[in-house]
Amino acid sequence: REHVMTATFVHPKPVPTGPAAADRPLTKTNRRDAARIAGVGYVLLFGLAIFANFFVREGLVVVDDAATTAAKIAESKGLFRLGLVAFLAIFLLDIVVAWALHIVFRTEHHDLSLMAAWSRLVYTVFLGVAAIFFFQALAYYQSPAITEALGVTERNAQALLGLELFNSTWLIGLAAFGLHLIVLGYLVTRAADTPRFLGLFMIAAGVAYLVDTTAHTLLANYEEYATPLLMMVAIPSVIAEGWFGLWLLLRAGKK
User: Which of 102, 46, 33, 31 has its CA nearest to residue 245?
Assistant: First the structure.
């Protein structure tokens, strides 16, 4: 019995101490590296969003005109598929950016930084769900069995409905993105190494996203106000996110 007990305690697991333990590399990502990752993500997101939204979605999809939309997509099937790939890339990049921004601002206010990250992730989930409707529309256009079963007119109508559901789902997600910008903008105004006006522009952009989503919900004649509402969202958003992306790349986390 004594032999068994002695054998049990002869070789205890060593606990690292001294200089060797102190020299071990940390597993945490530092603030500067996280800022670079987020900055590169912002640059990529900016280019991908312009291509996917303006060149593909708005360039090929004609509201309330299923036949014209089907004809445009039939002429540009490759472009339509690239647009879907771009949306999927945005979906993945937003996950990385949400994580990186949390690291950049967690020392400023840990709980609010988590809220900003989670609200961006909620937006990202809605974008991923919206992409399903893009896949659905593509399936309608390319499946001979669906065309034979429904006929061309009904097939085009169902495909256009899927593309419009993409817009509606994404719109709900943009409300969460607006919350993300408001919280993140507040963190920017608090931080000592960020321009205060940058944070104010981000808050303004976030409020604009929320107002636009609410207007879509409340106004039956939204199309009459679409242009001024678009400008209300686009101007502060482009200024804030472009400025923020440059700050992340060039300044954030430097001593």
Answer: 46
Output the pLDDT for position 251.
73
Q: Distances in Å between the alpha carbon of 176 and those of 28, 172, 207, 245?
A: 28, 7, 11, 20
How far is Cα 44 from Cα 37, in angstroms, rounded to an integer?
11
d(CA 22, CA 215): 57
Residue 94's contacts (CB-CB under 8 Å, 6 or more residues apart) are 41, 45, 120, 121, 123, 124, 127
Distance separating the N- and C-terminal Cα atoms of the chain: 61
Short-list 46, 26, 27, 25, CA closest to 248: 46
**pLDDT value at position 8?**
44
Strand (E) positions, 73-227?
A: none
Is the pLDDT reported for residue 235 higher than 60?
A: yes
**pLDDT tens for residues 56-86?**
988 888 888 899 988 998 888 889 999 999 9
d(CA 68, CA 216) in angstroms, rounded, equals: 24
pLDDT digits (tens, 9 = 90+) for 120-129: 999 999 999 9
Residue 221 is classified by DSSP as T
Average pLDDT, the chain: 86
Give the side-chain half-sphere CA count within 13 A for 125.
8
Residue 15 burial (CB < 10 Å; 0-12/13-18/19+)? exposed
pTM: 0.83
In this structure, which amino acid lies at residue 82? L
Residue 103 in tokens: 């690291």
pLDDT at 116 over 80: yes
